[in-house]
Design a protein that fits this description.
mainly alpha, 3 helices
Length: 131
C-alpha cells in the first residue's frame, strides 16, 4: 500500500516539539501552583502577625507566646516555600534552556533567520530614531 497524499506521518521533530510544549505547560502549571501556595502562606503570615500585635496590645501572657510561636512557624514555612519555589524556578529555567538549545540545534536556519529579523528590526528602529 502506498502513502496517502495529504496524510503526514509523525516525525522525530514532531515528538520533540510535543515534548517542548508539554514542558512549557508543566512549567506554567507548577508556577501557578507555587504562586497560589506562596500567596496562601503570606496571608497566613500576615494573619499571625496581626494576631501577635493584637495580643501584644491586650496582655503579654500565654496568648502572646502562642501567637509568637505561630508567627515563627509561619515565617519558617514561608521561607521554606520560597526556597522550594526558587529551586523549582531554577530547574524549570534549566529545562527551558535545554529545550531552546535542542530547538536551535534541530532548526539552525530558523534560528539564524529569526536572529537576522530581530537584528534588522533593531537597526530599523535605531535608524528611524535618528531622523
Amino acid at each position: 500500500m502506498g502513502i496517502k497524499k495529504g496524510v503526514r506521518r509523525p516525525t522525530k521533530l514532531d515528538a520533540s516539539a510535543s515534548i517542548r510544549e508539554e514542558r512549557m505547560n508543566d512549567f506554567a502549571q507548577h508556577f501557578e501552583e507555587g504562586q497560589a501556595r506562596l500567596a496562601r502562606d503570606l496571608r497566613t503570615l500576615a494573619d499571625d502577625a496581626e494576631a501577635l500585635l493584637q495580643h501584644g496590645i491586650q496582655d503579654a501572657d500565654a496568648a502572646q507566646v502562642a501567637a509568637r510561636e505561630r508567627l515563627a512557624r509561619s515565617v519558617a514555612a514561608t521561607r521554606e516555600q520560597l526556597r522550594a519555589l526558587q529551586a523549582a524556578a531554577v530547574r524549570k529555567t534549566e529545562r527551558a534552556a535545554e529545550a531552546a538549545a535542542d530547538y536551535a540545534s534541530e532548526h539552525p536556519w530558523k534560528v539564524a533567520a529569526g536572529a537576522a529579523a530581530v537584528g534588522a528590526l533593531v537597526a530599523l528602529l535605531v535608524c528611524s530614531g535618528r531622523r
